[in-house]
Each structure stands twice: as structure tokens, then as C-alpha cells.
Amino acid sequence: MSELMPVFLALAILLGGVAGAAILTWWERRLLGFWQDRYGPNRLGPFGIGQVLADMIKLLTKDDWVPPFADKVVFIFAPTAIVVAMMMGFAVVPFAPDMVIIDVNIGLLFFLGMTSLAVYSVLLGGLASNNKYALLGGLRSAAQMVSYEVFMGLSLMGVVMMSGSFSLVDIVAAQSDVWFCFSQVLGLLVFVIAGIAESHRLPFDLPEAEHELTAGFHTEYGGMKFAMFMLGEYLGLMLISCMIVTLFFGGWMGPALIGHWLPPLAWFGIKVFLVINFFVLLRAAIPRPRYDQLMSLGWKVMLPITLVNLVITGAVLLWMEGGA
Amino acid sequence: MQTAEDLVYSQVEENLYRQFGQDLFVAQHNVDKIPTLWVGRDRLVEVLQFLKPSFSMLYDLFAIDERTREYRQGQPDADFTVVYQLLSMERNEDLRIKVALSESDLNIPSIISIWPNANWYEREAWDMFGVLFAGHPNLFRILLPPTWEGHALRKDHPARATEMGEFEMGPERVAREQEALRFRPEDWGMKAASDDSEFMFLNLGPNHPSVHGVFRIALQLDGEVIMDSVPDIGYHHRGAEKMAERQTWHTYIPYTDRIDYLGGVMNNLAYVQSVEMLAGIEVPERAKVIRIMLAELFRISSHLVFYGTFVQDVGQMSPVFYMFVDREKLFGIVEAITGGRMHPAWFRIGGVAQDLPDGWNRMIREFLDYLPARLDHYDKMAMQNEMLKDRTVGIGVYTKQEALDWGITGPGLRATGSDWDVRKKRPYGGYDQFEFDVPTATNGDCYDRAALRIEEMRQSLRIIRQCVDNMPSGPYKSDHSATTPPPKEKTMEDIETLIHHFLNVSWGPVIPEGEASVMIEATKGINSYHLISDRSTNSYRTRIRTPSFPHLQQIPLISKGLMIPDLIAIIASIDFVMADVDR
Fold this sequence. Notes:
The structure holds 2 protein chains of 2 kinds. By secondary structure, chain A is mainly alpha-helical. In chain A, 69% of the residues lie in helices and 0% in strands. The longest helix of chain A has 33 residues, at 291-323. The N and C termini of chain A lie far apart (42 Å). Helices cover 39% and strands 14% of the residues of chain B. Chain B is an alpha+beta fold. Classes of the chains: A mainly alpha, B alpha+beta. At the A-B interface, α5, α9, α11 and α12 of A face β8, α9, α10, α12 and α20 of B.
């Protein structure tokens, strides 16, 4: 059983990820609608969930068109890259005790590596389209994601220092007493902001920025290739949410007193769901900063915060060791 | 018809006469009491240069095809006339300068060096009448496509497609049209490269999510920084001024609704007031208050759309939905009163279409109590948001002087510190009876323009409340022979009334010859209809002066050196409607 587990789990993630992303498109629209005094898609099936199916049929049956002026190979490769990278990222996520595809001792680095790869997708998509709006979107994404990569990595070092491991399984285990969201407030803050920037969602959707760049890097994309970008974006959203839960909110562990009420997987699911809703709420509430403002926020605010966090965490850890 | 009062010259006229001698000018007397002087073409620039210090704004510039006009008593001979309407905000004075041109020599010096906003107006006059402006740097068509043949507002140019001959879009024509669309930066006066970098040209629009209609702006970019930009309009041109020449005075009212399509009956107001001035109609009190009430409701409606889209354009998704909910409530009121929603076409020459329905004030009172709390809520949500402030404070700044130079009116002008509101300065249609403040701001940036409009909504609510509290009784339509439709009550009782009713309904009223324009403070700035009647059932020439037209012209000035997101914020803060620009 335990040998088959990773294979089984990989399949489940593959199917669950795609289905989850599809349902998430519907859920996000309903939720936004709820917050914006309107309905959202509510026609097809119970609560409009059939919209997911309708959208899929539409996207699948659309003409698979590559603009004649685009760089064909890269144009087709770009949207696949983001999906593959995001899917791979799930490999190290511990959904429950023993429910992880691979527990590597560099799990966290693997996750960071995979999300970095996703930048290529946006960048290449923007460049290969040979469209000026796409190019501007690609340029923005390159600058935005590369800089936020730095804080994203650094913001997690506090967690690593406290748990003494890069393995996500160990990190979850290290939170059995106190979740890191309490001891690593600054780290959490930076990670959430960097996470939005990484998954380029509103308010940090500058590579896409509908109001400025029409659709940014995916202006020329349509049909399934467009759907792949969307899939990648929603997978990214889920992955970031999974990581936030794993790293800061005790992963599959339930809250102290009522933890035994539900199985670990359910706790994990509930927490991820709440974090996703939080991201949707952010999207509904906050305006978009300008490109240079986003950069200066990163380098002038985020970086100092992470460094301060590192110093404090280190100092406290040393003090406690010395005291013990 | 000259009265003793007309013969007293204004100070400006006296100064002009003293400077240039009275022989140079021919005075024309109009019902709207705006001093109108005819000047020879050769002295025009001199005269305008002399006038510039006392008239800070070129309010309007347009041409008239005089060739088929019959009633021109006292005016010099002309085939075409170019009209310059100047406005002095300090002294609250107007002056019209007219220049007569003959068909064989349609040439006149350009005055861009005196008032920069003459640029687009002159292009429009060239486009529509074929008047050549000597010294104009880029005298291209502005509203019609570059491949258009003829000049559309000339009297000999057909007004209907059926008069134009068969339209064919063969391969040859397609090729020609395609070629005309090719973008060459040099044609637009832009450089392809600087010493150290090659520029990117980005074609923003005419289809773009943030240009609020079909507006195109060609950008010369260095990275994301705007080095230069050229706005291109005309994609929403429907020939509203041409249509006015074939509709009767009455049946043109619905077309005015669609000029500033967010302003609804506000457009009717500008139009019917000009017609009423020509016809000499005094509107009854009740009609006046009803008109003001509805106009202010539409001001709120237009500003709500502005508010929502402005906030949305800086990336905040949600507020626009809340504001559309409010606007929906407002349309409910408009629908209950007029039967229409966005385009009620409800004002009539001499009054309004119907009396107010029973219970009209209950809905309005509810709305008056409902909206202020919502506005407070939006203030917290949007205007006090630090990110929104970062995006809009200090962006798109222009000074009061620049605003005047470019013909900017309305909230865009008042955000620079001026308090010029037509409702206060020249209370038209009964505004002098109301208590309200004119909000102003000092920075002249995107944020101020938005904040000012929000305060205007509160002031409009104040005006509406006064309307509801003090609605006078009496007729809703004037008892005047040109009132359209005429009163129906006595038609079956005496033959005079029957004939009169029959003629006024079937042909429409004949409006006495003359010229008039009445400014109103529309949702986006000063709007006026310069109407010329040739003692006929339709207008001889209708010139629609809209606020949005000059507002777009100065975008390049205020967006230079900023980034694309800033340009989007600027466009949003200007609050234009393309239908209002292109007409």
C-alpha cells in the first residue's frame, strides 16, 4: 500500500488539481459576485456549477489558433510550462501524515524552484506572441516575479531556522506546539504578499493588467492554450495556499482542542479553502499599484522586513539555546 | 430688431473700436445678447492677439456654410463663415468674432499660436467645410476617415446614405482603406528613435478596455514611459450636427440625448434652452424646477459611472458594481417620471413632455436619504485607500492657466482652483433660486478631479431636495405658439387651435430667424448648442459645443513622462464620453 501511495496520490493530484482549478473558476466568480452585490454564474445546474462544464466545452472546441507572426514552438510551449511547473510543486506538499508524494529533505527549495520556473511561462508567452502588449506584460512579469522570488525565499528562512529542516514534513511536525503563523508573523506577511505577486493575481496582476495592457502576456492566446494559462494561475493559487497552510498554519494538524474532530486531510482542505477565499477577497478589495510602486514596495519594504525577521528569529533562537 | 439696449457697446467692443477703428468691424445683434463682430480676414490675427489678454479661453471655433441661407440681415456677404467664440471667465463675458470667406478662396490664418486648443477645432472646420487654415501644422481630417471625399457639413453634401450612390467594398477599396490605416509615426509628428534608443509605438485603442469607448491614442514609449502621444478621435462620429439640419426642431431632441449619453436629459436642456431663446419662449416655473431636478439626477448618474470606472481603472474591481446598483435605483426614478432610462428625450420646447406622476416625490426622497450614506461608504472604500492615492495624487497635473488655454471647463477646471460654474455665474433655467456650493480643489491632479465630482454629487442631492420641497404648481408647458407639442385641450373647440395644432405637430414649429447659444453646466463641463434658424421648421446650422472635445486634446500635455498606468488614470479622471467628443 505505502509503495503504491505516491503513484495513487500523483494521479489524484493530477485529476484533483485540474478539477479543483476548474471549480475554482466558478467559485471565485460566485464569491466575487456575492461581495459585489451581483449573482455571478448561477444559471447552469445547481448554483450554476454547470458553468464549469460549459466553459470547458467552449474552450476545448475553440479554434486552436497560433498567430502567424508568433514564434510557434515557444508560443505553444509557454502555457504548458506553467501547468507542469505548478503540478510538480504539489509533489512535496504533505496533505496528511504519510500523504505526500516525495518527502525530500529539500522540499521547500523544490517548491521555490518550481514556482520560479513558472516565470518562464509568462515571460516566454509574452515574448513569443510578438505583440506589444504581450511584450510589456512579459517584461513586467520578469521584473516583478524575479524580485519577489527573493523575498519569497527569504521570508521562509525564519520557518526553516525554527524547524531546522527544509523538509515540509518536518516543518509541519515542528508546529505541533505552536503554529508558525504566531511566531513568524512577519514571515507570513511577506510570504502572502510575495505569493500574490508570484501567482500574478489582482492586485498584483501587473503582467496581465487588463485595464492597462488589455490582457498582457496572454493577449494573443485563445482556446485551450489560454485555458492552460488559467489552469496554471489557479493551480498556482492552490499551491500557494497549500504552502501557506503547510508552513504557517500547521499543515494537516487541526487546532489544539478540536483537532481530533476531523481527519487530518479534512483539516488541511478546510484551511486551504479559507486561504483561497482570502485571496479572492483581496482581489475584490484592493486597487492595483503601479509597476514601479510594486517594485519599490518590494525592495524598500519587503526586503527590510524579511531581513529584520531573520535577525530577530536568529537572535531569539540563539538566546533560547543559550538559556536552555 | 434693435433696441436701445443693444446699441450700448460693451467695454470690449469699445476697446476694440478704439484700437482698430470702428470701420473694421460690422456688429451683428443676436437674441442671445453675445456681442458679435465681423472682422476682415487680413486683420483677424491682430484682433485676436489683442483680445487674448482679456479673453483667456477660446470657447468654440466652428464654420457655417452660408450659401443657402436667406435671412442674413445686416451681415456681410459670405459663402462660408468662421466663428470664434471667446470666453472671459474673470469678467464673465463672451465675444463672438466672425470672418466671412468666399467659396473660391477658403483660406484663413490659423490661430494655434494664440489659443493652442484651436488645433482640433480648425481641423474639424477643415474636415467638415473644407476651410483651409494657413499655418496649421497638421491639417488632416479629424472626425471623418482619411479616405472620405467631400466635406460633410456643406449644404451640397448629402445627408443620407441613400443619396450617396452605391457603396462597394471591392478589393481595390479595401486595399486603399487598409493603406490609409497604416501607422507611420512621422505622419503623427513623432520620432522613431532618439540618440540612444529606439522607441516603441503602442496603439492604445480604439478598442481597449480603458479608453471608455472608441478612442485611440498612439503612444511613443521608451520602456513603459510615455515620451509622446497623439490622441485620435472620430470613431464615434455620427454626424449629429448634420442630422440636426434635416430634423425638425422638435424631433431633434432625442438625438441630443445621445451626445453625452451619460447625461440624459441634461443634453435636452442645452438644446431646448437655445431654441426657446430663439423663439422667445418663457418657460413656466414648474417646468423649470422639474428640468433642474431631472438634470441634477442625471448629473449624479453620470458622476456615479465616472466614480466607478475611475476606481476600476486603477485596479479596484468592486466599487463599480455598488455604484451601478445606486445608478439603477436612480434610473428607477427616471423611469417612473419619464418612461425612459438612459435616453428619456423628455424635455420639450417650452416645457417638459408630461407632468410629474402621482407620488413622484416619495421615490426621490427615499433616494435622497439613501445615497449620502453610500457615498460615505465609498469614500472609505476607495478615496481613502492609500494605494488609490498613490496611483492618482500628483498624476496628470495641469494648472489653471493651462486649463484655460486648452478650453477645459467643468470639474476639470474647478480642480485647478477656479470656481467657474455656469449654474452660479450665469444662472440659467432657474438655478438662481437654489442654494448650493461649487466645490473646488487646488492640485489639479487625478485625485482632485475625482474628489471634486464626488462633492458635486452631494451638492446635486441638495439641489434635488430643494426641488422636492418647493415644487411649484402650475403648467408644465409654456403657453406659446412654438411650444411643441402644442396644448391639445381646445383643439376640438375652435378652428384656430386645431390648425395650429395640426401644423405644429405635422411640420413642427417655425422658429424665427436668428442665432443663439445658451451655455449650461453639463455633467462634464460647459455644453452649448449654437443654433441658427433661417425661419424654418428645422435648424439651418446646429453647432454642438461639447466639453469632452477639448478635454481630450490636452492628454499629450499632461501624460508626457508618465507611465502607461498613469495614462489610464488620467483618461479615467477626465471623464469623457466618446459620443460627446465626436458627435
